Amino acid sequence: CTSIIAQDKDGHLTHARNLDFGLFMGWDATIHDWPISQKLRKMIINVNWIKDGKLLFKSNNFAGYVGIYNGLKPNAFSLTADDRFQLEGGYYGIIKWLFGLEADGKWMSWLARETLETKATYLDAKEHLMNTPMLSPVYFILGGAKKDEGCIIARSLNGTAILSEMSDSPHGWYLLETNYDQGTEALYLDDRDTPGIRCMDKLTQKNAGFEGIFNVLSSRTNLNKLTTYTVLMSVETARFETILQSCPGECYPW
Amino acid sequence: HVELPAPYKDHCILDDKQNLYDPSKQFDIPWFDVNLDLPPSERWKQVGAAYKTQIADLIGVLIDLITPIFPEAVKFADDVFGEMAPKLAQPYRDEIYSISEVTGIPLGQITMYNIFYEIFTV
Hints:
A: alpha+beta, 6 helices, globular, B: mainly alpha
């Protein structure tokens, strides 16, 4: 996956992500694609979540999946979640949960949904995502409606391992997260940080909007054979667009 | 960073002065309402009914992948994840039960699908 939060020169924020899924789950040698990714592309839906008869927030989901990977609460915050792989990973949380040792721990995508359902501001959401015990590590990428409201929360099961703020970003006007801790090198066989950063730097801040960031996320290898869709969000305007993605032909498998 | 060999090399399409963004493509993805004012068992009925074939196909691919290595995969998913389901927190539990009911897919398999992120991080 790749998540990006960028702000233009006037401080307007755009939050976007590519969802990549299906690695090592078979390979269809006839059409040169991952079969799980192929199936997932047919199951993508957008959801308006209604409460008290009004729109509470928006998300996209795979049909039949009740948790949330990406969501937008108008005038409050936007959220995406990228996989974080740790030795003490999700299986450890599941085992602890099964034995009742982590009874209060939240499943990742349910914590994201709970945050969108119950938190009204960027700061409330940030506090909740940083401190609620959970059952698996993850990167929460959180954006707001105002200038500099953007952060990456690298979560371990019981707390926040690393918090990276937009205001401290080494890139100045954007944050980019794939599946590695900020400030560490990505695995050389799976380095989507370098091409993503190079392409964002070519984009420049004055073009930081839906069009520009979609083009970055449509560039190899941030776009690869695992990519199922790109979602583009603006908290300020409540625009939420999901666009189907694939990478046919000679494209890197992940 | 190690550059990939051609034709897999990283490539920023901005170098080609291309614009791939077509906002009309967002309408390829359908919108549904999930009404939190309804009981959890009612919220996903429309989505479940519309996508039962696709959900079954996806879980079928997972099972086909695992079965050659682990022939008891279907039974394992039905039994182990089926037994986990009653312990899940509300309102997710009732929502998952209703999706299983409306799609006709065993509860254990729908539960496995819904906690797949945690399994995948292994």
